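tl;dr need the bound structure. longer version: we got a ligand (MGD) that a collaborator sent over and nobodys looked at where it sits. i said id run it. heres the input, straight from their email, havent touched it
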Amino acid sequence: MSQPTFKPYHAPSGGWGSAFSVANILIREKVRLSGAALLLKQNKPIDGFACVSCAWAKPHPSRPLAFCENGAKATAWETTSRRCGPEFFTRHTVTELLNWTDFDLEQQGRLTRPMRYDPASDKYVEVSWDQAFEEIGRELKAMADPNEVVFYMSGRASLETAYMFAILARLYGTNNLPDSSNMCHESSSVALPESIGVPVATVTLNDLHKMDGMLFFGQNTGTCSPRMLHQLQEARERGAPIITFNPLRERGLERFVNPQSPREMMTPDETKISTQYHQVKIGGDIATIAGMCKALFEMDDAAVATGRPRVLDVAFIEEHTHGFKDFEARMRSYSWPVLERRSGLTRGAMEAAAVGYAGCERVIAAYGMGVTQHRYGVQTIQMIVNLLLMRGNMGKEGAGILPVRGHSNVQGQRTVGITEKAKKVPADNLRRQFGFEPPADDGMNTIEACEGILAGKVKGFIALGGNFVRAIPDTLRMEPAWRQLQLSVQVSTKLNRNHLVTGKVSYILPCLGRTEIDRQATGEQRNTTEDSTGCIRAWRGVAEPAGDMLLSEPAIVARLAKASLQTNAHLDWDAWVGDYGLVRDAIAESYPEIFHDFNVRMMEPGGFHRPLGASKREWDTETGKANFINPPSLSEDPDTEEGGHEQRDVLQLMTLRSNDQFNTTVYGYNDRFRGIQGTRAVILMNSNDMARLGLAEGDKIEAVTVVHDGVHRSVGPLRVTPYNIPEGCCAGYYPECNALLPVWHHAERSKVPAAKSIPVRLRKVIAFTDDPKVPIEPDPPAGVGAA
Ligand SMILES: Nc1nc2c(c(=O)[nH]1)N[C@H]1C(S)=C(S)[C@@H](COP(=O)(O)OP(=O)(O)OC[C@H]3O[C@@H](n4cnc5c(=O)[nH]c(N)nc54)[C@H](O)[C@@H]3O)O[C@H]1N2
Ligand SMILES: Nc1nc2c(c(=O)[nH]1)N[C@H]1C(S)=C(S)[C@@H](COP(=O)(O)OP(=O)(O)OC[C@H]3O[C@@H](n4cnc5c(=O)[nH]c(N)nc54)[C@H](O)[C@@H]3O)O[C@H]1N2
Ligand SMILES: [Mo]
């Protein structure tokens, strides 16, 4: 095993590092040449396929090479020529595979056959599709109460699949329809409707071209939505300032070289992305924004006193907002020393950010998991909106709010019915369309599903995508509880840990990926997605399927429905599968405002946008106005309030993605931009904290969660690595650190796990243990990491 290395990476994001990394994975995954040519079809609408990585908007007309480093990795991962067929499963018991790393599991390649877990041999055994659906249908019919079953979806499947899956669950009788969004941007779905009456971004790519300034909170663009760097680069070339708030100096937000520009690749040209970079402490955003608001009020006072133009957009505030007076009083009441302590920034830094913001007329505020995954994630988002409203940056060209969504269709799935909230279901339309009474009670979201599994109330779990047991909190408590499930069905493309944590009856159902040609009775099918900017477009797979037994996701949903539901005179599942256009007609009938004439409009080359009142200054809120909403506290975690458990040896841990992973899919062990090579078993620390806690670089520690619910949670050994991170904060990788995150440690109201602020204590590990909870120090596979 080669030694892991840690040295700062000096190159910009993009550039040659990115080009090498793409080449490497294409070679490692033995992507056929036609597969490499496939990248030319990536993000090309109508007759190309939507990237399977992030949800960032695709420009129209598209660029000749419309993919990024991580999009190419995701495509290579799906179009790999490796196969994980029945012979693999005859060679390995599930107990043996439980010791494999996430990397090694997915590295086996595409799943090709339906498999059933056989407890007697402790192996997965091939079954026919007919057998699989027959038994799953029987199990579903045998459940005492439909609410004992959870229908989970990870945000990749198309609008057509999502709609069908939601209809299946509701006809079955439950609103238990959580999705990955519950661990992700659900904080936005709760915060934004209260503030401005829409659940999603109010901006389109056109606004990004027109903005003259940007605020950027807690999102790692260079790794998680790299194509967005093109718009940021263009903004910088127009002279628009970008003001960034992030505890880490993420390379993509510092400097960028467009790997698709020969000029930039051959010369030392690079674009400086952030004009101000504020290393706020973890959970310090509410205080930071409050400081900026206070500074804006003080600047406005000075403008009034000297007769200069106002800093506040007084006309907008009067005509369009509610709650301003209370908000003003609250912001003015905060004292600078408290704001400094809570944010980790100086007064000067917060004032500089306010001055930079006030210097722009059209500002977009973007944010990601660094905001949503906190106890007060909802309230932080509402503070960001408050800041925008003060200067009228909502509902005008070049301005607005931009939650940067994760999965490529996670936003769209919510739009077409994947929701546990009964009031979001168009019950009248469903009643008319399908002649049934949709369930009236709210179902379970992800956290409630976890609690239900722990309590033994959930008996069946149908997962369409995702690696649920690995992505959720408290993984070590959840795994034994999962084993008590009567039924666990995983519709997947690759082997992952959830397949190995079995229920009493467990199935792996392999499906087509989005890059693949989907042939049905009426010919090759298109499918549709909605991106981060509410743009809905049609796509088509172009690669030959990874196996001749694979079924499409709509086909699997239809067969699950036929096996488990009574026949419905209004609904012909086979016709839907034969022609996805019929599913789109049904979507248009359920959601006419967004999807009228769906089959026609999806063929427009730039797609179409869902209507969003807030972008036209129409406020669908209780007050009929855009609302200023005061935060409950200055901290993003109520437990870290003064007087709380803020002892000097407790650090706040954030759990992060590396540049070499897509969620729980680990592509490799290098986090190039952060200078970490060959390992994921690290904890990134401030050197002052290291000195204070008596730790040296390379020491092995175990991290222990500091909570008082009587459960011992620890992960280790992790290698202490000095890093540029604020004092009192530390960082480790997700999903390895998920065992540290208690199920109940989640955002208030949205219930998004607070994965960015876990209170931990570090204990030096003297000897290595073989404890299975300890992540195995990974052996980097040959050939990976050479770039
Ligand atoms: N290559 C790649 N692309 C992806 C994914 C992937 O795993 N790999 N995942 C996809 C998915 S599902 C999602 S949701 C998105 C996730 O994309 P991101 O939203 O970028 O999520 P993270 O990688 O978790 O990074 C969170 C960022 O927030 C910062 N942060 C942490 N705590 C705080 C805080 O308290 N305040 C502030 N201001 N910042 C903070 C961290 O330093 C980090 O830069 O990416 C999507 N795209
Ligand atoms: N500690 C911590 N935990 C977190 C986060 C964090 O930042 N920190 N982030 C959270 C977030 S934002 C998210 S979105 C979740 C996501 O976490 P995951 O559940 O990991 O999400 P996916 O990437 O959807 O899941 C990967 C699996 O999906 C399957 N798959 C891939 N493509 C397809 C397909 O086309 N169809 C089907 N049916 N299956 C497919 C593959 O088998 C693969 O193993 O993790 C959450 N968990
Ligand atoms: Mo996500």
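gonna send this back to them w/ a short note. The radius of gyration is 25 Å.
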